[in-house]
What does this fold into?
Amino acid sequence: MAEWVDLLAWGDAGWGDEMIRGAFWTLLLATVAFTLGVAIGSVGAAAKLSYLLPARWLGQGYTTVIRGVPDLLVIYLLFFGGNQAVMAIARGLFGYDGYIELNAFTIGAIALATVSGAYSTEVIRGAVLAVPRGQIEAARACGMSGWLLFRRIMVPQVARYALPGLGNVWQLTLKDTSLISIVGLVEIMRSAGVASGSTQKPFIFYLSAAVLYLALTAGSNRVFGLAELWANRGVRRA
Amino acid sequence: MRFELFAEYFPDLLSGVPMMLQLAGLSLLLGFFLAVLLAVLRTSGIRPLELSVRGYVYVFRGTPLLVQIFLIYYGTGQFEVIRDSFLWPVLREAYWCAIIALTLNTGAYTSEIIRGGIEAVPWGQVEAAKACGMNALLRFRRVVFPQAIRQALPGYGNEIILMIKSTSLASTITLLEVTGIARKIISQTYAPLELFIMAGAIYLTIVFTVTRIVDWIENRLSPELAGRHRVEDAEKDLASVH
It folds into this structure.
């Protein structure tokens, strides 16, 4: 037990501070990827509910492919192909011909946002469909135009209906950040791997990693629970 | 797009399919038995058992699968007790470590799905079975379990698909299944998009097939509901057009 305390100590001798720093990067990556994912999901849901057939096809294709393919494969695609793609875009749009390299965080955030965006699309699409049609008709009858109707009627209700589902997407994204360790970002898993490598004590470090993830998932579960309470504060229940 | 790569590397990727199916199949099978056991304990009404199962499920659902795999593959080798024990020939092999991790993981998720099914069985039926003089085992086998499974099937279908995708993580502990092979070829050819398309097509084909099979079983098990989904889908489609 004393050995474990030394290994997880703060400062140069122990690995406690490295692990906590890893947890910080995990949380930051998950937050950025989830936020981007919700933005993608809103666009995706709009596409899937659009009256334009090509938009519906695009949305359907995106969610089908991403939800049917391992997250790791998406990460490899962006890790190995992300730089090429960005360079091609830079050349095409701005005529810039130099070398561009995205860092592990950026690639990780884009990859995880792509994945969580597909799940968010489904959640938000369901939430939009849950808003009763009569309300939209009523709003139109009151003379609300598209933007006002969207802002006053749709957004507040869609946000409330989508909250539990988005909570699940958040948990998924948070756990998926562990995969970004494979492409080199020093988050929880990578910190644990480095510490295991130099101390030859993998069990204690991967166990600590598990505890950190559990703390993060449990903590954020609380936050989403409170957010749901807040969002439903005016809703009457049977 | 380098089309010549498709013919060259597609067979290599396909050679990873048996490993993927083995990992998914074996761990789903073992995980299912584990899940039924856990679900029964979870609904047993015996407080300490219920709490332990809840703790187990909480831990396995709250941590990434990658941590679980690494903990079993790298973590267990740290202890001399384990290295000297009869467990070592199993825990030394990446293959069995992956199976164990995937089994424990799907066991946790599936037990919650089955629990939902068990709790959906109307209590009156259990009372009726009791009144007929059935003992607990017979009640479970004849009344509760068949209905719970039927209820749990759609959720379990999702779990099967998640597991097929999860086998990709076995590549992180040296096992060469489709994603692992794809990564290897990408680092040799620098053709990420081509390999993504090929490997993705393999996964989508399998996922699609599994979905179809689960749908078919669902219709077989509850023929009285067979038409219902189609009507709902049609209504959803209508709603999405306008």
User: Anything to note?
Assistant: The interface with chain B takes residues 48-49, 51, 56, 64-65, 68-74, 76-77, 79-81, 84, 129, 175-179, 181-182, 189, 192-193, 196, 200-204, 206-207, 209-210, 213-214, 217-218 of chain A (CB under 8 Å). The CA atoms of residues 86 and 205 of chain A lie 36 Å apart. The first helix of chain A runs from residue 2 to 7.
